[in-house]
Amino acid sequence: MIRVLLADDEAMVRAGVRAILDSGGEAEVVAEAPDGREAVELARAHRPDVALLDVRMPRLDGLAAAEEITRTVPGTAVAVLTTFSERAYVARALSGGATGFLLKSGDPYELLAGVRAVASGGAFLSPKVARYVIDGLGGSDGGGRLAREAEARARVEALSPREREVLALVGAGLSNPEIAARLHLVEGTVKAYVSAVLDRLGVRNRVQAAIVAYEAGLVGR
Fold first, then answer.
1. pLDDT tens digit string along 51-96?
2. Which of 21, 35, 97, 178 could connect to 70 by a Cys-Cys bridge, CB 3.0–4.6 Å?
3. Where would I find the HTH luxR-type domain in this sequence (predicted)?
4. How far apart, in Å, are the Cα atoms of 61 and each of 8, 57, 86, 145?
């Protein structure tokens, strides 16, 4: 079972999300928090597989809580579940270490898939925000995009052929077990490759690595 920490300041929302997770039979909510500060404390106490956080919460907002959990509870994957999809929220969540960004308006199956993906070491973005992330977290101007693409290609050139292959699969959204099966490697070896790729690219998580892969042309548009 995937152990989930759920943080939202509305009890009715927490009840609905918990019911959806229970219905999937793969996840269980082990702790609930009505604000970001308590979410951080419960994450430290329970060490859940996934912390599912709303953005707007009292005491400490979900974005700050995501950063704190990522920093202090590295074994917990963080996903944001919110009504709001403003670019500033997406950018800060992902740059702060979240590997999932889900919208409450999405299908329940999207929520289940997102929790499953981030728990397995992958990344998941609501389709409504995925295009924005793919476009590089800011600016659609041609010159800026060309500059980002050139920079991404230069960074990818520093990787070994196998590391580039792994990066391409990360960019395609595959989890470590899926990459291992695709490349006929053991999962531990894939984890080592992914860690090396993140380190050499200078990125914090798989979503940021996926953006580099996309801009470098390793993933089809």
1. 999 999 999 999 999 999 999 998 999 999 888 767 778 878 877 8
2. 97
3. 152-217
4. 10, 5, 15, 31
